[in-house]
Amino acid sequence: MKMETEMEDFDLYDLLVEHPQSTYVLRVTGARMDEADVQEGDMLIVDTSLRPNTGDTVIVGDEADGFTVCLYRPRRGALRLVGSDDDHRQMPEGDVFGVVTFNVRRTRRDAHERQGAA
Question: Which of 26, 60, 99, 117 is exposed most, by the fewest CB atoms within 10 A?
């Protein structure tokens, strides 16, 4: 792997947020979703203005009932959402809250986490 050692100044917000009026950051709690590489604690950048494409990671649900991370797989006129643990459901497409555009994950554990793992 080759790494650039000199970088132009950039704004992380500009990189992650294309549509500010329709972009949210959601923190993942609960079960992980290996197929979409989503783990507990991840921060998902979600754009509600985008229409999902087949294979996109999407957020389904609403604030009142809670959100679920799923893979978007339309099938024969119906929408098939693949969640964690082989949770396969058919839902109306209107249940899609938004499309995950980025996943921000902390890779370094805190000192107390490292001590607990030892």
Answer: 117
